[in-house]
Amino acid sequence: MQFLLAIPFFCAALSLVRAEDNRLSYFIPVGDTIDVFTADFDATCSTWAPAISQGLFFSEAFVEPGDFQGKNADTEALIFCDWKNVTGAITSDSQITTFTVDVAASLGATPA
Ligand SMILES: *[C@@H]1O[C@H](CO)[C@@H](O)[C@H](O)[C@H]1NC(C)=O
Question: Which residues constitute the signal peptide according to the record (predicted)?
Fold first, then answer.
């Protein structure tokens, strides 16, 4: 009975994650600490010239240490670099464009 009651909540949580999860798993560059990589990724993502030239607006640079299991927090990270086509808050009418792969490659990070 408890299990049946929990199902709607579980499904709601799952769809929330599915809708928003654009994190990619990467090895940070050899010799970088997570802090250095995070600062570099923030700076590079938020000033990414191809995004600016497409007329987009910076949304978010995200770095979460570790892989999808939370392991290897010194060498791997879940990352994304999002730009949006609106100046203010993201609505259902906004479009998010992700530059994660290009920004990561420019810093020497490799897909994990
Ligand atoms: C952003 O993109 C969405 C999806 O293409 C579009 O519906 C919306 O009008 C765009 N908004 C602006 C401000 O360009």
Answer: 1-19
